[in-house]
Design goal:
single chain; mainly beta; 4-stranded antiparallel β-sheet; 18 strands
Length: 202
């Protein structure tokens, strides 16, 4: 193998796509490793534990906590908590890190049906960058460049602008969606209860 890293327990959630760093939920804590070398960058252990897959960038680890319904940012440099954001409902699904430095966001869904983007980094965010009432997601969001693709419980496939949260397109297949979307070569694909739907999003 290219690299191997030992964890303190079983991998609890499949890692979210990273930007050079992989954040892994293992046991009661999280481990951040360099995605290219496997070098361990941070060990973080907390009684709060991660409710789903965390995310990381070059500055911080972003963890949706199982206790307290919050999103916590942990500095990679020293393991200290930089900030925490109380959520109005428990997190639902993995945390994703998207965007470029200066406008980067941490993306997560909550069980009340809202998709939330919070400014990334170790500076305390003044507020959420944007929110979208999705009505609840089917599967996890997919980041496709400057857009986010989500499948909803309302039988819709949404294309959302990552910077602003504006819904650019809404597709209604007319059938319940049974899984999260996959984006491949300019196509967003999602399975309905009766068919596989591919939509041109290039």
């Amino acid at each position: 193998p290219r690299w191997l890293t030992r964890l303190d327990g079983p991998l609890l959630h499949w890692p979210s796509p990273g930007v050079g760093q992989l954040a892994l939920a293992s046991g009661t804590g999280c481990v951040v490793v360099d995605a290219n070398t496997g070098v361990r960058l941070l060990n973080w252990d907390s009684a709060a534990a991660a409710s789903d897959s965390p995310a990381a960038d070059s500055k911080a680890l972003y963890v949706p906590t199982l206790l307290g319904d919050r999103l916590a940012a942990i500095e990679l440099a020293n393991g200290a908590q930089a900030w925490e954001l109380r959520l109005p409902a428990p997190a639902s699904g993995p945390v994703l890190r998207l965007g470029h430095e200066g406008r980067a966001s941490v993306l997560l869904a909550t069980t009340d049906g809202w998709l939330r983007a919070v400014p990334a980094g170790i500076a305390v965010p003044p507020a959420e960058r944007w929110t979208v009432d999705s009505g609840g997601l089917v599967g996890a969001p997919v980041v496709d460049g400057d857009r986010i693709v989500v499948a909803t419980n309302g039988h819709a496939l949404l294309l959302i602008e990552a910077a602003t949260g504006a819904v650019q397109h809404k597709y209604l297949p007319g059938e319940p969606l049974v899984c999260g979307p996959v984006v491949w070569r300019g196509l967003a694909m999602v399975s309905t209860s009766q068919s596989l739907l591919a939509i041109d999003v290039a």
